[in-house]
Specification:
CATH class of the largest domain: Alpha Beta
Distance between the termini: 71 Å
Helix content: 25-40%
CATH architecture of the largest domain: 3-Layer(bba) Sandwich
Structural class: alpha/beta
Shape: globular
CATH topology of the largest domain: FAD/NAD(P)-binding domain
Low-confidence stretches: none
Bound molecules: flavin-adenine dinucleotide
Number of domains: 3
Length: 416
């Protein structure tokens, strides 16, 4: 029976896995990544946040991303009926990058994975993790190779970066339900046909993600993420029960929902729907613990909140950065407390986003951003969170997100 060995075993070659692999190779560790798919492969999650630029830069991966020619992004725009508001991420209170990209993930993930390979990481594409044993001295995986044969591989430490595959949470019963209701998304890519200079485009900025609130249901929203090639990612998010109220194919359901918003309908009047829409649901998930005996969960394999603030890839990259730093100290002979050194610092930012996501769905955040009178200092602080700087303790919205949002909401009521 075949039995392989490595230093660091990683499940999944998405952004979390590729960044962790690169950082660990730079520390001189042997790294083996087990990836179920053959790249390039589609992934959802196309709008990055500027905070991710600093994380890619620190890993030496940014140049490859810049040279790939993705759509430049400098902010987020929001629409509700005829109301419009926008955040320019360069006008933010936190230090660091103020711009980033909107990326086709098939290409973006391949750029990162290829970088990890050039650094000497071994990525086994088409290999699927079937079982995990973390009880022994060294964690061990059972893997199915593309030829159908199974083999075992062990390592000193195991990182689960398998995203929505949630390999270890499933295999080790670490799953716990999310505290958000089950939502789903219908989405596709279109040739958007939004001619620059045309009447529909007058209020449209390709350099920002556009989030549109449904005209009648404030917890239903659409994303429009323009790419650099005249195409765009388009999707709608709602509670699963709401989406089930629409009949037909996923494309017909998405078209019906887009048709309900006059602003979005105008904008996409000339769009060519050339790709069948798809549905993803029940993606919000949590775990009992982000680590265990010689293993840790990265990115989406840990917790996934909600797509509204485009925080997923940033959290994935942050988790990989924190885990690689902890492993470096461990390799140097230091004792690492994975709760204090990994889980808690990661959750700091995740909890900031959690407070914002909650405020989005109960309407508070919308009330704040569409309020006609804006305090510039507060806008810069909110802009910093939307840009992904959710770990910046100098920002009061990181230190006390719930209290800050509550006090703003009260101010809106007075002001509005
Ligand atoms: P992934 O990118 O999912 O990579 C995991 C990899 O593991 C995959 O390649 C998979 O093939 C592999 N794998 C899985 N199981 C196994 C197995 N058993 N064996 C071997 N390999 C395996 N994020 C943003 O930043 N911006 C957005 O605009 C955004 N929009 C979103 C919209 C929606 C509707 C949803 C649901 C999510 C969105 N996200 C967004 C979140 C984003 O998709 C994820 O957070 C991000 O892809 C997580 O990266 P990751 O590296 O953790 O996992």
């Amino acid at each position: 029976n075949r039995r392989d060995s490595t230093d660091i075993l990683i499940i999944g070659a998405g952004p979390a896995g590729a960044l962790a692999a690169t950082l660990l190779r730079r520390q001189g560790r042997r790294v083996t990544v087990i990836e179920r798919e053959v790249f390039p492969r589609f992934s959802i999650g196309e709008s990055l946040l500027p905070q991710s630029m600093g994380l890619l830069e620190a890993a030496g991966m940014l140049q490859d991303v810049v040279e790939a020619g993705f759509q430049y992004k400098n902010g987020a725009a929001f629409a509700r009926g005829e109301e419009r508001t926008a955040f320019d991420f360069r006008e933010k209170s936190s230090a660091g990058w103020g711009t980033t990209y909107q990326v086709q993930r098939a290409r973006f993930d391949q750029v990162l994975a290829d970088h990890a390979t050039r650094q000497g990481a071994e990525i086994r594409y088409g290999h699927q993790v079937l079982a995990a044993d973390v009880a022994g001295e060294r964690p061990r995986l059972t893997v199915r190779a593309p030829d159908g044969g199974e083999y075992a591989i062990d390592g000193e430490f195991l990182l689960d970066a398998s995203g929505f595959g949630r390999t270890l949470p499933r295999l080790l019963q670490l799953d716990t339900p999310s505290d958000f209701p089950p939502r789903g998304a219908l989405f596709t890519h279109v040739e958007d046909g939004i001619a620059q200079g045309g009447p529909a485009a007058a209020n449209f900025d390709r350099e920002k993600i556009l989030i549109t609130v449904h005209p009648r249901h404030c917890d239903v929203w659409y994303w429009l993420i323009p790419f650099s090639n005249g195409r765009a990612s388009l999707g709608v998010v709602a509670e699963q029960s709401f989406l089930e109220g629409y009949a037909g194919s996923d494309t017909e359901r998405l078209q019906a929902l887009v048709g309900e918003d006059p602003g979005l309908s105008r904008l996409l009047a000339n769009a060519r729907w050339d790709t069948p829409a798809r549905q993803i649901k029940g993606y919000a998930a949590n775990v009992k613990s982000l680590w265990g005996h010689n293993f840790a969960l990265l990115g989406n394999a840990g917790e996934f909140l909600d797509p509204v603030f485009s925080s997923g890839v940033t959290i994935a990259l942050k988790s990989a950065t924190l885990a690689a730093a902890a492993l470096q100290r461990q390799a140097a002979g230091e004792t690492v407390d994975w709760e204090a050194d990994y889980a808690r610092p990661l959750k700091r930012g995740v909890d900031t986003f959690r407070a914002f996501v909650r405020a989005w769905y109960d309407g508070r955040f919308q009330q704040i951003i569409f309020h006609p009178h804006k305090n510039e200092t507060i806008k810069r602080m909110i802009s910093a969170i939307l840009a992904g700087y959710a770990w910046d303790e100098t920002n009061p919205f990181v230190a006390q997100p719930e209290r800050r949002l509550a006090s703003l909401e009260a101010a809106c009521e007075v002001g509005g």
